[in-house]
Amino acid sequence: MSDSGPAAQGGQQPVDPCVLPLGTQGARDYPFIMIMFGGAGDLARKKLAPTLFRPYRDNLLAHDFRVIGFARTQLNSQAYMAMIKESVIKHCEDPAPEDMLNEFVSHFEFISANFEDDSKYEEVRAAVEKGLPGVSQENLNLLHYLAAPPDSAPVIIDRLKHHGLAQGPGRVRVIMEKPFGGDRASARALNQRVLNAFDENQVFRIDHYLGKETVQNLMFFRFGNNVFEPLWNRNYVDHIQITAAEDIGIETRGNFYEQAGVVRDIIQNHMLQLAAHTAMEPPASFDADAVRDEKFKIYKSFRKVDEEYLRHNMVRGQYGPGRYGEQAVPGYREEANVAKDSVSPTFFAGKFYIDNWRWSGVPFYLRAGKRLNKRITEIYVEFKQPPLKLMGSACQDAPNALHLQIQPEESITLRFNAKQPGVGNIPHPSLLEFNYSKAFQTASYPPYARLLLDCLRGDLTLFARQDGVEAMWSVVDPIIQYWEDNPPANFPNYKAGTWGPEDADELMGRDGRRWRDFA
Ligand code: BG6
């Protein structure tokens, strides 16, 4: 492979979503070889392989592609194909014809390797040089997907550079999973390492929340309409709540969760991304950098907080045993690979301010947790009350609000007051609802599939940029630090199946507000 400079790698090509709708074109013109580091792990089996199958089945992928699993597991390519086939059958919603599945997995092969083993990178290099029949090296897209444990990233990145796999005659890209680093300093060090091998526009830092249809729709909703944007600011918005509640526990990820906790796992990435999409200014265009510039400004505008503020406005929790109907579930400390006296938080609630012109004084309440009452992710925008209570005090209880539900339903609901029929003057809170699946009669595209296609096409819009990642860490680092310095004495402090610790309700109650009630 020739060693052209990083600038020549230009991962990004302008993509106009209106000219190139994903549904009709996808990435059919992008033959590729994907090296899947950690290719036999959970992420690869549960998400990546089934995800890749979807656009393959929908004829949105080039026919020419190879996926090379690269991991420590002792497997040959035959066994790997069988593993991938089983994963696709297990994790794809719709059944697929046997011959299609067999054809799909025939694109997979496996290299059993330790991530330090130089000779195995030479094998990869030989495979890449061999390329794809009928595809010139210039037209070949090489993707390195780092689905391996985060601590192996530096080793893999260094080896890719050393073996000439970070650059090529064709386009070379690297996809990196969250959490990117464990705090700002480590994220910065990792970024430096990555940028020593790759150009920034070759680096696709993936956050699957950005692949969710409703999250993308937020930009269309805000900037494709003229009705709401004039109200989208401190003059009309009372406060914003973002909830990402999960009913599942940590499942088999005890080791990871003990290290990460909820702030590194969800708040630093998914939740701050949602906040940024909600709060950002209109970008100059839908160009990746224009969008990411605006998001970066939001992260930088998060108010810096001191210990006093943290003590009163950030709540942590850890689930104890509980029930979902008849089913009893263990507490966090009873899960596999979790210390009996663990202080790792599984719940977070906090109040933030974004100190910019638009949002000055508007609280953003963020809440996320495991083993809560139900699975729901929602952005809730509550508007201020009308200036006069001409309709009577009942209107006070039901201010206008927008509910942007991301999952399980994908919907947008506007609450407004209507007159209850009859002789009295009684206001009645009513709903205008838009439901994605009802409106389009189609399920939305799996987030990973959307993002993989974007990566193949070189569209970085829905991927985090270096400065954004570091700025997001700057928002959460003080919280993590303060909590690590002051371990909780009351864990576990909420029962599985509830809505989290009472402190979270008090946080809202002190401001005369309530969390959204999803009962
Ligand atoms: C992952 C977190 O990024 O997102 C998990 O690591 C979490 O802890 C998951 O369960 C939630 O994703 P989703 O799409 O189910 O909301």
TrEMBL record:
Binding-site residues for substrate, renumbered to this chain: 208, 212, 246, 265, 370
Active site feature: 270
SUPFAM superfamilies for this protein: Glyceraldehyde-3-phosphate dehydrogenase-like, C-terminal domain, NAD(P)-binding Rossmann-fold domains
Molecular function as annotated in GO: glucose-6-phosphate dehydrogenase activity; NADP binding
Catalytic reactions on record: D-glucose 6-phosphate + NADP(+) = 6-phospho-D-glucono-1,5-lactone + NADPH + H(+)
A GO BP annotation: pentose-phosphate shunt, oxidative branch
Gene3D superfamilies given in the database record: Dihydrodipicolinate Reductase, domain 2, NAD(P)-binding Rossmann-like Domain
EC number of the protein: 1.1.1.49
Enzyme class at the top of the EC tree: oxidoreductase
Residues annotated as domain Glucose-6-phosphate dehydrogenase NAD-binding: 35-217
Name of protein: Glucose-6-phosphate 1-dehydrogenase
Lineage per the UniProt record: Bacteria, Pseudomonadati, Thermodesulfobacteriota, Desulfobacteria, Desulfobacterales
